[in-house]
Amino acid sequence: MDQPASRLPDDFQSRYGGAAPDVAPPVNAVLETMLGHRSVRAYLPDALAPGVLETLVAAAQSAPTSSNLQAWSVVAVEDPERKGRLADLSNSQRFIRQAPLFLCWVADLSRLTRLGEAHQRRLEGLDYLESFMVALVDAALAAQNCVVAAESLGLGTVYVGALRHHPEKVAAELNLPPNAFAAFGLAVGHPDPAVPGAVKPRLPQSLVLHREQYGIAEESTAIAGYDKALGDFSQAVGMGRQDWTQRMISRVGTAAALSGRDRMKEALTALGFGLK
Predict the structure, then answer these.
(1) Residues 92 and 121 in one domain
(2) How big is the chain by its Cα radius of gyration, in Å?
(3) How far is CA 17 from CA 26, 29, 116, 225, 247, in A?
(4) CA separation for the pair 238, 196 (Å, rounded)
(5) Which residues does 271 contact at the CB level (< 8 Å), separation at least 6?
(6) Close Cβ partners of 172 (under 8 Å, ≥ 6 residues apart)
(7) Which residues of 175-211 are buried (b: 16+ CB within 10 A; e: fewer)?
(8) Is residue 185 part of a domain?
(9) Residue 252 belongs to what domain range?
(10) Does 218 lie in the same domain as 183?
(11) Domain assignment of residue 30, yes or no
(12) 65 shares its domain with 114
């Protein structure tokens, strides 16, 4: 039986700037959604339908979680004034105000801390970096499940790492308890069709897929090809022609380029994390 027509081959090529692996990818609606992902930075003012938030959180809670610790929480922000304050703390990104929903994903060891206190136990394992890493990974897995669910409903999303610019101020705005850290934000809403997003090319698979052992033999050649692909993409969407190498060197070349996040360990300690 012939396979039904699908956008997947086009999205598969777009994801690699026309240089996708020479394979015949399987086709289904989930893959169409995932390979068609794009960041949306312009939203209509329309509110989300009743029940959508709860459905997105159910999808998030369906993600894997280490040892069933479920060491994450999410703060759903819909109040325009609070969204505005969070936008101000996140590099003044306009779409945070535009989107009807802004989700703040929290690496949350506080619930386990309270659980120990309720049973007169000090949970020493929470003082270690490993526990913080578990909470951070749990939050990221949950958030990505939410993104896929949102996009399957026709909604747009964009992650906001700039929420980490001012961790203590964000924690105060969200009333987070000690041992809880707002790791990143996620704007969710109806995309503005007047400002369409595009599928941004990613690194070629030869740079990220290593079979049996890690290898770098073709790295320079592959990066040069990707620099051209991303430069072409950036120029096509009106962002100027800057290649990936230039962007990455600029992004992590100095401590100042981290926009305040160079003090992250200090901030996490102030928020109550042991990080031993």
Answers:
(1) yes
(2) 20
(3) 19, 21, 51, 10, 17
(4) 12
(5) 167, 168, 171, 176, 178, 179, 180, 181
(6) none
(7) ebbebbbbbbbbbbbbbbeeeebebbbbbbebeeeee
(8) yes
(9) 199-260
(10) no
(11) yes
(12) yes
Domain match, 105 and 232 both = no
Question: What pLDDT digit, counting tens, does each position of 136-153 carry?
Answer: 999 999 999 999 999 999
Instruction: Give residue 1's pLDDT band: very low, low, confident or very high (50, 70, 90).
Output: very low
Output the six-digit token pair for 191. Answer: 């995309």
If asked whether residues 149 and 63 sit together in one domain, one would say yes
Task: Please write down the HEC assignment for all residues of the chain.
Answer: CCCCCCCHHHHHHHHCCCCCCCCCCCCCHHHHHHHCCCECCCECCCCCCCCHHHHHHHHHHCCCCHHHCCCEEEEEECCHHHHHHHHHCCCCCHHHHHCCEEEEEEEECHHHHHHHHHCCCCCHHHHCHHHHHHHHHHHHHHHHHHHHHHHHCCCEEEEEHHHHCCHHHHHHHHCCCCCEEEEEEEEEECECCCCCCCCCCCCCHHHHCCCCCCCCCCHHHHHHHHHHHHHHHHHHCCCCCCCHHHHHHHHHCCCHHHCCHHHHHHHHHHCCCCCC
d(CA 91, CA 237): 22
Give the closest residue to 104 by CA, choosing from 138, 59, 132, 72: 72
Quick: pLDDT tens for 182-198. Answer: 999 999 999 999 998 88
